[in-house]
Amino acid sequence: MSTLSIADLHVSVETDQGTKQILRGVDLTIREGETHAVMGPNGSGKSTLAYTIAGHPKYHVESGSIRLDGEDVLAMSVDQRARAGLFLAMQYPVEIPGVTVSNFLRTAKTAIDGEAPAIRGWVKDVRESMNALRMDQGFAERNVNEGFSGGEKKRHEILQLELLKPRFAVLDETDSGLDVDALKIVSEGVNRAKANTGLGVLLITHYTRILRYITPDFVHVFVAGRVAEEGGPELADRLEDEGYDRYVGEAVAS
Questions:
Q1: Secondary element (H or E) of residue 190
Q2: What gap in Å lies between CA 220 and CA 230, rounded to an integer?
Q3: What is the pLDDT of residues 47-74, one digit of tens each?
Q4: pLDDT value at 254 more than 60
Q5: How far apart are CA 175 and CA 103, in angstroms?
Q6: How many Å apart are CA 131 and CA 155, to the nearest integer?
Q7: How many Cα atoms occupy the beta-carbon half-sphere of 105 within 13 Å?
Q8: pLDDT digits (tens, 9 = 90+) for 22-47
Q9: What does the DSSP assignment read for 79-117?
Q10: Contacts of 31 (CB under 8 A, 6+ apart)
Q11: Distances in whole angstroms, Cα of residue 169 to Cα of each of 31, 34, 54, 172
């Protein structure tokens, strides 16, 4: 069983005011087939955790480890992490002018697998995934994220997830900017990918609404760069009622 293990992770970032520590000792283990929801207020370090796992150069790991089946993820380049089976669905996907969705997807699949997918089977897989995500087939010939609506950008992220078949996916506020219909479609895509591949999911969100469609096995409350509390799905329901004020107050007091 594949495992993504984060141990005592401390991460900082350089700002105009100097070095700012963001993560202050994060411990988190995700196993194949598990869904972990990370919830917390703005500025608590949730996205920093996502981008650190993915290898964003802005974030400096001061200490701690990230291991994928025992392998040192921090020693890997960004492309090596992708080939090892890590995937990041970004909160704000970037535009890539001049690169069509179809070329982008096939190039990414080739880079990850080490060989180009057979055309006939690949075209069939892309078409089926796009249909499942309620995406018009003409979408494939548009430039990546250029002029896309928020919902189209998020569906494209999940299209990548379904076609690239990673072992672990970090979904950074995939629910932001989605209406109810788009949220259901995106959630169905995540659930489908998990059912088909045994995907492990780290789902970062502020709100519980996406958790109505993607049921977490574990919920982690993130405050001030640490995991303040852990529990099952019932913890998310409590957060919906009570908010984060108690955790924030405890963090300030400590």
A1: helix 180-197
A2: 5
A3: 999 999 999 999 999 999 999 999 999 9
A4: no
A5: 26
A6: 11
A7: 29
A8: 999 999 999 999 999 999 988 899 99
A9: HHHHHHTEEEE-SSPPPEEEEEHHHHHHHHHHHHHSSPP
A10: 1, 2, 3, 4, 200
A11: 11, 11, 10, 9
CA neighbor of 222 nearest in space, from 36, 72, 87: 36
Q: Which of 152, 151, 155, 154 is nearest to 133 (CA)?
A: 155
For 138, phi then psi, to 5°, come to -65, -15
Phi, psi (rounded to 5 degrees) for 122? -65, -45
What is the rounded CA–CA span in Å between residue 185 and residue 1?
A: 28
Residue 70 Rama label (left phi>0; alpha psi -120 to 50; beta): left
Q: Give the CA distances from residue 89 to residues 15, 79, 114, 155, 170, in Å, rounded to whole numbers and listed in that order.
A: 25, 15, 22, 10, 6
C-alpha to C-alpha distance for 194 and 243, rounded to whole angstroms: 29
Neighbours of 217 (CB within 10 A): 15
Burial 117-138 (b: 16+ CB within 10 A, else e): beeeebeebbeebbeebebeee
